[in-house]
Amino acid sequence: MGRWRETLRTPVGRLARGRVEAEQALPFWRSIPRGCLGFWRGATWRRLRHTPLWDLARGRVSGALDWRGRIDSSDLPEPVRGLIHDLCRRTRLWRKERAAVAGELIAHFHDGLESGDTADQLIERFGDVKAAAKLIRRAKRRCRPIGWQIRHRLRQGIAVLVVVYVLAALWLATGKPEPSVDYLAKLNASVDAIPEEDRAWPILREAMIEYQTWNPEVFNAPMDVGILPKWWTDVAFDDPEAGQLAENLEAYQGYFAELRRAAQKPHMGVRRVTAAEPDPRDFLALYGPDDNTGPKRWAHVEDDPSIAGLLSRSLSTVMFPALGSTRRDTRMLSADIQAAVYRGDAERALDDIDTQLGLARLTAQGPFLVEQLVALSSMGTSFYNVAAILERRPDFFDDDQLQRLAHTLAAVDVNPIDLTGERYIAYDMFQRMYDPDTGRMTRDGINFFDSLTNNPYDEEIDRRRWYREQLSTIGLPIAAAVVADYDDMVREYERLFGILDRSPRRLYPQGELPPLRRELDSRADDTLYGMRYFPLLIQLPALHAASRTELLVGSVRDALLLAIALELYRRDHGGHPDEPAELVPRYLPALPMDLTDLDADGNPLSPLRVAYRDGSPVIYGLGWDGVDNGGTPPDHHVWPTPRSTEAGGDWVLFPEPRSDSS
Amino acid sequence: MMKLESDLMRGAGPVAVLKLLEPGEKYGYELVERLERQSDGVLKMGQSTLYPLLYNLEAKGWVKSRVDDTGPRPRRYYRLTGKGKRQLSKQQEQWTELARGMAAMGIVMTPPLATN
Question: What ipTM describes this predicted complex?
Answer without folding.
Answer: 0.87
